[in-house]
Amino acid sequence: MDSCIFCKIISGQIPARKVYEDELVVAIEDIAPVAPVHLLIFPRRHIVNSLDLHPENNALIGHIFQVAAHLAKERGVADKGFRIVNNNNADAGQSVFHIHFHLLAGRHFNWPPG
Ligand code: 5GP
Ligand code: ZN
What we know:
Blueprint (H helix, E strand, L loop, with lengths): L4 H7 L6 E4 L3 E5 L7 E7 L14 H17 L7 E4 L3 H4 L8 E5 L9
Antiparallel strand pairs: 1-2, 2-3, 3-5, 4-5
Bound molecules: guanosine-5'-monophosphate and zinc ion (ZN).
């Protein structure tokens, strides 16, 4: 999608610090980290958010969680704890409308979230 920041990162039009990529997904360092580890994992395919998912995307979402777990282990935060966050629409604070999963770690996170 032409105007999408994450599609532009995937195509190389906008630079990003890539930490992982495969045929389905890309993971980058968030440009404005809110935790010592703050990565974004998103599919190469432009999907708006969870409301735009279909049964054929089920394996993709499972794969994203496996990539998140892999990256948490790689960063050495798996045992201590990490959070996977997916914001959908305005009240949740979604600002980029290409589905993505935040991998947050390296500090304690409150519950309930703010
Ligand atoms: P959302 O608010 O939609 O859940 O998360 C979007 C995330 O994308 C934010 O944490 C924001 O800092 C990050 N972000 C927005 N634009 C860019 C960018 O150009 N590069 C990178 N690396 N992260 C971005
Ligand atoms: Zn996109």
